[in-house]
Design brief:
heterodimer, A: alpha+beta, Ubiquitin-like (UB roll), Fumarate Reductase Iron-sulfur Protein, Chain B, domain 2, five-stranded mixed beta sheet, two-stranded antiparallel ribbon, B: alpha+beta, five-stranded antiparallel beta sheet, 18 helices
């Protein structure tokens, strides 16, 4: 297969970027998208040109490192996949493919197609965990958890932190990412103890880091490589309201069940 | 020969760890604040260690190559984590997990370490549940288990096919909490390029910021390497692209012994290679062997038709299929350990029964499981793996058997450590896959996650205190000393050298050549002659690299080619050491299979001469390394020929 590639090149965070056009030929349809870029990079090295920088690591769809915006879609034109799982058989021979980095104020470009997603780490640091210091915890079976709750928690916990939700959102909102973590932990008895503090701290941090607001367009759900549903955003909203109401009530009253 | 003190505590096997903990030195909370610890790597071992050490009060700095600690390759572990909980009431115990691990490792692991691993295994499950790891549960709300290779009990806890991901997110959460509390400082996109010793003690590291190319210095009282394995020496492996040997290799060259480098795990169930552009191999979890059955056609005519595409596997009737693992190993069937399953697949393919266009594949078939359990149940257990397979192979494994073949997956070898996980360099520790300690010559499935987290949560936080108790009077280190100058200059000179060669071959071109040598001569089947040839070939290739590699770009920018070149330079030295180790271990054990030593296709050990750890000592550039020996004494386990029949 042959392709014309229109790729975003940017020297560094401060430089002005531009699209460059590359032609690539004789690509097997079984080749993965990133392997196609490897081949292009080998050809650039051959010509003593700088290869294209892009993030990638596990190449099996779980580390969340790869992050290309391909022909207007995060991770390209296939469902429930990361960029590294995209194969050239999904394209038409002779097609022009436009490759861009994630675009969001909170994810500044570092070089070419590589962006800085440390904002996601900072949101997790604000409270995206259960405070269980090593040791001194009960037996794993001490607290039974309803299978449906454990399964829902796992659905949310499947998030790989790639940022496709932000890249797909016209507001560059991180709501699905935050919601996935809030919902994962809020569905478990161990996570309920800090639930109110967690949701408020994470939402506050998200706002501080320059992510946009959620306007319920559902683009994030459509593009999430792990199929995480916006139901979790509804869960986040319920948790958030409950936390705010709980914060206003006297201590003895406890939280409000919603 | 150097005297290797493994510091195994006195007492019976069951008492050793308890005895150690009750008699070890501790550091009081006020003094912990005076001690700085560097942790390199944020996988299960590194993240759990940094989080635990931070919570204890040490000043911790943690480093990762990627943009976030959560990218570490532990995330890709699929199937599960072992523990001796015996929740299913099927006869499990600490002693049995210990025994299975020793036997699975073909009697080449240290008894005391493995017993400790089995002892702390249950705490890992408790800790993970407390962190919110959503392990699979049954309808009663209790934790579910499944079976893995090399065990006759169900002791594997799992979170769908994403157990590594969930455990890492748990450890990453704990780490993130400590970062927020400022007990741990995170340095992302920083690659460790060398180790700094002061008066023979590990006191710091040199890193390169991969986004800018800047070189940085970091000092501490101790350095912990949690940098994973070195499977990428083969170019193609199931490891992530950025996984590399460089951190532990630099430690080796500074005096840390490298143990059993030839012990490589070839995983039996990976998606086969399909083109020379291929960049990595994808694992299909061992858990699939719980319900999948492995077979090849019985007749060569069928094989021919299949390869030509004129026949489909589903058209071959039951009597035309050779379920060779069930045939050869009736007691364990499809759940034999990985080394055994891999060799059996190779044996069938070498005999001409392999399927797929290359003939280097066997079938992993779920049709019986789907009949027995229904598609929904199979999907619940393995859905994400089936989806991964379908995206790569463009075939639906619910309808047609998967094609699989063995691939490099894990390295049991690594830095030699004593019972306290300290290397032969004082103040330098190695945990997780980076050390050699617990798996002997073959690792059992679902034991890597167990070991990584055992080291990080429950072993190192104790032993490091014992080792650092004499450091509380040592002030914080400055990096403005000549030892740091010297190492930094060396690192910079190496980078300059690589950029100035301007040869004709790309880094990947040479790496692929190395991978081929390793796979052909130091792979699944090895010989005395083959490994000797490999040593010479690698030496030549190293020459070629230093004279003809082309690294484009500059030092002071993000430069993936330079990163790859720096790592390949180390692989080209490691590969030789692996071949040397394989050459001198004149026996077959676990993942190390020397064709000269076999009985009926099974590995034949030589306990009289090789019941020991080979710990290699660096003696200088281009000088022959020295092979030191730590004898393995089995006081509790009765050493026997492994038998899975």
């Amino acid at each position: 297969m042959n392709f014309t590639l229109k790729i975003w090149r940017q020297e560094n965070a401060k430089a002005k970027g531009r699209f460059e056009i590359y032609k690539i030929t004789d690509i097997s349809s079984d080749c993965s998208f990133l392997e196609m870029l490897d081949i292009l990079n080998e050809q650039l090295v051959d010509k003593i040109e700088k290869p294209i920088c892009f993030d990638h690591d596990c190449r099996e769809g779980i580390c969340g490192m790869c992050s290309l915006y391909i022909n207007g879609r995060p991770h390209g034109n296939d469902d429930d996949i990361t960029t590294c799982q995209l194969h050239m058989r999904k394209f038409k021979d002779g097609q022009t493919i436009t490759i861009e980095p994630w675009r969001s104020k909170a994810f500044p470009v570092i070089k070419d197609l590589v962006v800085d997603r440390s904002a996601f780490d900072k949101i997790i640091q604000a409270g995206g965990y259960i405070s269980a210091t090593t040791g001194g915890v009960p037996d794993g079976n001490a607290i039974p958890i309803r299978k449906t709750d454990a399964d829902t928690a796992m659905d949310a916990a499947a998030c790989i932190g790639c940022g496709a939700c932000v890249a797909s959102c016209k507001n560059a909102s991180a709501m699905l990412f935050v919601a996935a973590k809030v919902s994962h932990l809020a569905h478990l008895p161990q996570g309920k103890i800090e639930a109110h503090e967690r949701v408020q701290a994470m939402v506050k941090r998200m706002d501080e880091l320059g992510f946009g607001n959620c306007t319920n367009t559902g683009a994030c759900e459509a593009e999430c490589p792990k199929g995480i549903k916006i139901d979790h955003i509804a869960k986040l909203n319920r948790e958030f309201i409950a936390a705010r109401l709980g914060a206003q009530l006297p201590k003895e009253g406890g939280s409000v069940a919603i | 020969m150097a005297n290797l003190d493994s510091k195994i505590p006195q007492g019976t096997l069951e008492q050793k760890w308890t005895t150690y903990k009750t008699s070890q030195s501790l550091i009081n909370p006020a003094n912990k604040r005076r001690i700085d610890v560097i942790v390199v790597g944020t996988g299960l071992a590194g993240a759990s260690a940094a989080a635990s050490l931070g919570a204890l009060g040490f000043n911790v700095k943690i480093f990762c190559i990627s943009d976030s600690p959560r990218r570490a390759h532990s995330i890709a572990a699929q199937g599960g984590i072992n523990a001796a909980k015996n929740y299913p009431n099927d006869g499990d115990s600490v002693d049995r997990l210990f025994y299975d691990t020793i036997k699975g490792g073909d009697y080449r692991a240290r008894e005391s370490n493995v017993h400790r691993l089995a002892e702390v295994s249950n705490s890992i499950i408790d800790q993970s549940v407390a962190q919110g790891v959503p392990f699979a549960r049954d309808y009663s709300g209790y934790l579910d288990n499944r079976s893995f290779g090399g065990a006759q009990v169900s002791r594997t806890f799992y979170a769908r096919g994403q157990t590594g991901q969930q455990l890492l997110i748990g450890a990453y959460g704990a780490l993130s909490r400590e970062i927020e509390r400022k007990t741990v400082e995170l340095f992302a996109r920083q690659e460790m390029l060398d180790l700094v010793l002061v008066d023979g003690v590990a006191r710091g590291i040199i890193t390169r910021d991969v986004t800018t190319g800047e070189i940085h210095r970091h000092a501490a009282h101790a350095v912990v390497l949690a940098t994973g394995g070195y499977g990428n020496v083969f170019f193609l492996s199931t490891n992530a692209m950025n996984s590399n040997v460089s951190a532990i290799w630099k430690a080796y060259k500074k005096g840390a012994y490298f143990a059993n480098p030839c012990y490589v795990q070839i995983h039996p169930t990976c998606i086969p290679v399909h083109g020379d552009y291929q960049s990595k191999l994808t694992l299909m979890s061992e858990s699939l062997r719980n319900d999948g059955r492995i077979w090849v056609p019985k007749s060569l005519e069928d094989v021919k038709e299949i390869r030509a595409g004129r026949m489909k596997p589903i058209n071959i009737p039951e009597e035309g299929r050779d379920y060779y693992l069930e045939r050869r190993y009736p007691a364990f069937g499809n759940l034999v350990p990985r080394d055994v399953a891999s060799r059996a697949a190779k044996e069938r393919c070498d005999a001409g029964y392999g399927v797929g266009s290359t003939g280097l594949a066997v079938y992993l078939d779920f049709s019986d499981a789907i009949k027995r359990l229904g598609k929904e149940k199979v999907e619940e257990r393995y859905g994400n793996l089936f989806q991964m397979y379908e995206k790569i192979e463009d075939e639906n494994p619910y309808e047609t058997p998967m094609k699989i073949y063995p691939a490099v997956h894990y390295t049991m070898g690594g830095l030699w450590v004593d019972y306290e996980l300290q290397t032969t360099i004082k103040g330098l520790f190695a945990i997780g896959e980076a050390n050699f300690s617990d798996h002997g010559a073959n690792r059992l499935g679902a034991s890597a996650l167990m070991q990584g987290l055992a080291d990080g949560y429950f072993v190192l936080p104790y032993t490091i205190q014992n080792c650092l108790a004499d450091q509380i009077q040592v002030p914080h280190f400055s990096t403005n000393i000549s030892e740091f100058d010297e190492v930094e200059n060396h690192v910079k000179a190496r980078i300059e050298k690589l950029l100035s060669i301007n040869g004709k071959q790309s880094v990947d071109t040479i790496h692929k050549k190395l991978g081929k040598i390793m796979w052909d001569y130091v792979g699944m089947a090895r010989t005395k002659n083959g490994t000797a040839q490999a040593i010479e070939m690698i030496k030549q290739l190293r020459e070629e690299f230093w004279n003809d590699v082309r690294v484009v770009g500059k030092a002071d920018e993000m430069n993936n080619e330079l990163e790859k070149a720096l790592r390949l330079a180390d692989y080209l030295e490691l590969g030789e050491l692996m071949a040397r180790d394989a050459n001198l271990r004149d026996e077959s054990c676990g993942g190390h299979f020397r064709e000269e030593y076999q009985t009926d296709g099974e590995a034949k050990r030589d306990d009289e001469h090789f019941m020991h750890v080979a710990a290699w000592e660096f003696t200088g550039e281009n000088a022959e390394p020295k092979r030191n020996v730590e004898p393995l004494n089995y006081e509790t386990v009765k050493v026997a020929q492994r038998n899975y029949k």
